[in-house]
């Protein structure tokens, strides 16, 4: 029953919800493969690119460090992909220190503060796969972001999608209890 409730929360959060005009787009990292972004990360990047092309003035934060099984940081991989697609490099701000979602938001808050932006006043647009957005909203709020919009990327790889929705329910519980 607990899993069903958690899964219901995950599914309820799987939506694009844009409030006001975002000032910064934050793209959350996902696994990097030897050949480039994983399918889930590419889905996030392509969704972000579609929105950015309609709002080319928007700076982008790419957030994600390098795991032991990754050839480069998630942020570097995202930077490379986005610049190959025409996003000017100076418009992409890299956050390469985080290892998980709560750290994504802590480090992104620090990066914005270094650029003179207050997290509690800055309107951010968080881009991730839909299954991840309930937890992302919660963790953004816990890290001082008061104005959070979300952009739900699809999960085009069926096995990855099923796995992600199943593992997100316990991840949501873990974050709710421990990621403070």
Automatic annotation (TrEMBL):
<protein>
    <submittedName>
        <fullName>YdcF family protein</fullName>
    </submittedName>
</protein>
<dbReference type="InterPro" id="IPR014729">
    <property type="entry name" value="Rossmann-like_a/b/a_fold"/>
</dbReference>
<dbReference type="InterPro" id="IPR051599">
    <property type="entry name" value="Cell_Envelope_Assoc"/>
</dbReference>
<dbReference type="InterPro" id="IPR003848">
    <property type="entry name" value="DUF218"/>
</dbReference>
<dbReference type="Pfam" id="PF02698">
    <property type="entry name" value="DUF218"/>
</dbReference>
<feature type="domain" description="DUF218">
    <location>
        <begin position="23"/>
        <end position="164"/>
    </location>
</feature>
């Amino acid at each position: 029953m607990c899993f069903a409730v958690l899964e219901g929360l995950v599914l309820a959060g799987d939506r694009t919800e844009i409030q006001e005009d975002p000032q910064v787009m934050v793209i959350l990292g996902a696994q990097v493969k030897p050949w480039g972004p994983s399918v889930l990360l590419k889905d996030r990047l392509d969704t972000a690119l579609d929105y950015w092309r309609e709002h080319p003035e928007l700076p982008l934060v790419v957030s994600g460090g390098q795991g032991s099984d990754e050839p480069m940081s998630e942020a570097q991989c995202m930077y490379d992909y986005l610049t190959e697609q025409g996003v000017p490099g100076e418009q992409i701000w890299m956050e390469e220190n985080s290892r998980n979602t709560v750290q994504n938001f802590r480090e992104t808050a620090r990066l914005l503060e270094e650029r003179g932006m207050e997290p509690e006043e800055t309107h951010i647009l968080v881009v991730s796969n839909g299954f991840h957005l309930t937890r992302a909203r919660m963790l953004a709020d816990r890290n001082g972001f008061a104005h959070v919009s979300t952009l739900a990327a699809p999960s085009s790889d069926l096995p990855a999608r099923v796995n992600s929705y199943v593992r997100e329910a316990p991840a949501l519980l873990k974050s709710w209890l421990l990621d403070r």
